[in-house]
Structures are given as structure tokens and as C-alpha cells.
Amino acid sequence: MAPISGHEEQEVGLSIGAAALQTGHTPVTLRHWERLGLIDPPPRRGGRRRYPPSVATRIALIDIARAAGFRLAEIRELLADRDPRRTAGERWRALAARKRAQLAEAAAAIQAMHTLLTHLSRCRCASLEECAARLSRRSVAGSDRSRIVLKALEAQKQRKPPDLP
Asked: Highest mean pLDDT range out of 8-12, 92-96, 158-162?
């Protein structure tokens, strides 16, 4: 489906299907973004949405933010900041600083999991309980996540089997 000619576009706007096709998204996605406040609800003609051509630019901005790893709520925050004293760069920097901190935490967690998996793949224990006991004494099991798993294994080991009728 080809985009509507420039004159018709200005007159009646883009249908949701045409806007979706032009931007590489589905109509369902555009409706969802409308509900979240990422794109403005367009005027309706004959009960149908008619998006202005500028919606493609707004959607491109959403796509860029998503590619940078921002969640839809963060993108909404970026787009809702209409303080004329703040430049686009200032708005991006504020969100980017938070996102970089989140990525650093995620990278550290991934590295800890990688280290733990390396140790687990070298396991020569006779039982999982023995493995858990050995790992609990090593620094590799020092993360909060490992401690939680190890405590759960220990608690399970100490439980009595349920009474059966």
C-alpha cells in the first residue's frame, strides 16, 4: 500500500494502517502507544484515526529510544518533559545516566552468573547437596542470588517429606 499523496495526507491524514505500514509497526502497537501517551491520539474522521504525517517522526524517536534499551515508561518520561528550558540533549543525558547505571548492574550480575556457571560446569560432586555445601564455602557463591539458592537447597534438605494419606 503506497502512502497517500502529500495533498491528501494534509487534508485527511494517515489511516492507522498507512501509519503502521510507513513506520514498520502494527496498528495494535500504535493503539497501545496511544494509550500509554507515547503518541498523541489523532483526530478521527468518520470514526477512524487520521494521523498527521509528523507521527512518523515521533515513532522514529520511540524506535531510537527502544534501540537504546529504554522501556516504554522511560520513553514516556522523555516525551512528556516539555520544559522549554531543557534541551533534548539534557533530557537524553538524564535518562542515559540512569540507563548506564542499570546496564552496569546488569553486566555485573551477568558476570557473576557466568563465573558461577563456569564453576558448576566443572562440578565433580556426587550430589547436588554436596555441590551446594562446597559452593557455599567458596567466594563464587558470595552473591545474594547464590546465597538465596543455597539457603533454599538447605531448607529443602532439612524438610521432612509430607505425610501421605
From this structure: 92-96
- The label of the residue with cell 514516556 reads 76
The predicted structure's pLDDT at residue 9: 42
- Element (H or E) spanning 48, and its range? strand 48-49
- C-alpha separations of 140 from 117, 131, 148, 156 in Å: 10, 12, 13, 22
Bridge partners of 51, per DSSP, are 14
Hey, what CATH topology would domain 1-80 get?
A: Multidrug-efflux Transporter Regulator; Chain: A; Domain 2 (1.10.1660)
Which of 23-27, 104-108, 116-120: highest mean pLDDT?
23-27
Which of the four pLDDT bands, split at 50, 70 and 90, describes residue 8?
very low
Q: Phi then psi for 14, rounded to 5 degrees? A: -90, 135
Task: Break the chain into its structural domains and give their ranges.
Answer: 1-80, 105-160
